[in-house]
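Async update (no meeting this week)

Hi team, since we skipped the sync, here's where things stand on the single-chain job. The sequence we agreed to prioritize is pasted below, unchanged from the tracker. I ran it this morning and attached the output directly underneath so nobody has to dig for it. Comments welcome in thread, and please keep replies under the output.
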Amino acid sequence: MMSLQMKTYKQTWELDPPFIIAGEVWSSVDSLIVELVDDFGRTGRSETQGVSYRGETYSSLAAEVEALRGEASAGMSRETLQALLPAGGARNALDVALWDLQAQQTGQPLNKLLGLGRLKTVQTVLTLGIMSGDEAATIAGRASAFGQLKLKVDGGRHIEMIAAVREARPDARIIVDANQSWSFQLMKELMPELERLHVDVLEQPLPVGGDDELEGFISPILLMADESCQDTGDLPTVRQRYGGVNIKLDKAGGLTEAMKMSNEARSLGLKTMVGNMCGGSLAMAPAFLVAQSTDYVDLDGPLLQTSDWENGFCYQGERMFPSDRPLWGKLNSAV
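Output:
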C-alpha cells in the first residue's frame, strides 16, 4: 500500500447574514481541509466542520487528524480508518479524502465506483435561520425558485415565523427544525398550528436524551431525527421515536458510514434526508452522492456564504449539480 503525505489547513467562510439556530449564532464557519497525497502526487481532498454540539472545533478536529499522520504515512485504508477513529468530523475528513484519492488513482468518478449510475440533479431546501416573521416572509417570497424551505426555530420563536412564511409562500413545502429546543408539552401544544400551516416535516423537536417521550406518540407530521441519530448504531432506537433521519457526513464519520446509514434507514422504513454543517462545495460533494437516493436534500451550505470554492456546485434555484470541472471525486453531471 502506498504511503500518504498529509496536509491540513483552515478555510474560513463568512456568512451573510449571520446564521442563527436554537442556542447558536454563526457569522463565519471554520472548515478543516485535509489533503492526502500519494507517491505519484495524486491528491484526495476533503472539507469538514465537525459537530459543534458535541464539542468539535477546528482545533480539536485538526489535532485528531494530525494524530494519525503516522498511520497515513504507512498507507492507511478506509477499512482501517473505521477502527482508528469514532464517528465524527475527524474521521469524516480522512474518509472523504481517501474516497477522492481513489477517484484520482483510478480515473473513475465515484458515482460509477459506487454503482450509482449517472448523477441526477437534486433539489435542495433553502434554510432560513431564526429571524422575525417579516424578515422570513420577505426572503421566502423572493426565493420562489425553491420549492422547499427549512425554517429554524427555538422555544420562544416559532409560529409567527412559520405563519409568515406560509402566507408568503402558500406553494412551498415547509420543514421546521427546532434543534432540540422544544419540550414535549410545547410540541403537543403547537402541533395543531403546525398542521394548520401544512408543515411537512418537524425535525429534532426534543433534546437528545429527552426524546424517549416520543415513543408511542402518534404524530400527524413526519418527525425527523437529527442530533438524536449520529450513525447506523442509533437507527434501531430512532425508528421507535421518529419517522425519518437526517444523515450528515460530519456526524456519521464519512461517506462510508453515511452510505451504509442511508441504506439501513431505508430498509427500516425510515424517510431519509441528507444534511450539512455549513461549509463550501467541497463539503457538499460527498453528501451529493448520498443525496442521489434520499427523500429530502439539505445541501444549501454554499448559498449561506459570501464565497465558495472555484468549480463549486452549480445552483439554479433549488436545482443542484456538479460543475463541468470536477471539484471532488471526479463528479461530473455528464457521467
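Quick observations from my side:
The two ends are 29 Å apart (CA to CA).
The first strand starts at residue 5 and ends at 21.
Reply here if anything looks off.
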